[in-house]
Amino acid sequence: MDLFDGKFFISTNGGANFSEQSLNLPGGLPQRSENRGDSRGGQDRIYAAPGKEGDLWIAAFDGLYHSTDTGKTFSKLDGAQEIHAFGFGKGAPGVNYSSLYLIGIVNGVRGILRSDDRAQNWVRINDDQHQWGLLLQVSGDPKVYGRVYVGTHGRGILYGDPTK
Q1: CA–CA dist 99, 95 (Å, integer)
Q2: pLDDT (tens digit, 9 = 90+) per residue, 127-149?
Q3: Dihedral angle over CA of 107, 111, 114, 115, nearest 10
Q4: Handedness of CA 11, 65, 103, 140 (dihedral sign)
Q5: Domain residues of the chain, as ranges?
Q6: Which CATH architecture has domain 3-29+39-160?
Q7: Which residue, of 79, 107, 108, 155, has the greatest Cβ tally within 10 A?
Q8: CB neighbour list of residue 28: distance below 8 Å, 6 or more residues apart
């Protein structure tokens, strides 16, 4: 899917057939420009929430959008100002939804961040001493809560577990 052309394709029969659907975002579609981060990263992409039918996320370079109706409507969530990578991981204990992971800037804080409540609140999970240069990919472990994998573009793949 190309966020900039205003359409995407959905299936309501397990992927046997797809139909085109218009993409409408609050504030309009993003505009192509040189100032949208690195196109090799995870920004300006659509993501399907694991195990949640019709639950879609758009990690645009300049904001995070969420839809629970198969993309008919999207809401822009507060806080995310710049996104370079986005992913899902096992949800927190007692929570029936995946944790979200993001590399970028949220509420003025640059870093690797996790949300356990569908992007209402974010926790920075790295610190100033652990930046690793260009970070373009992130994913939480689907089986281990809090474990995160980070692609460092030339410095390998790092993973981290929460400190107790």
Answers
A1: 9
A2: 888 777 778 899 999 999 999 99
A3: 10
A4: negative
A5: 3-29+39-160
A6: 7 Propeller (2.130)
A7: 79
A8: none
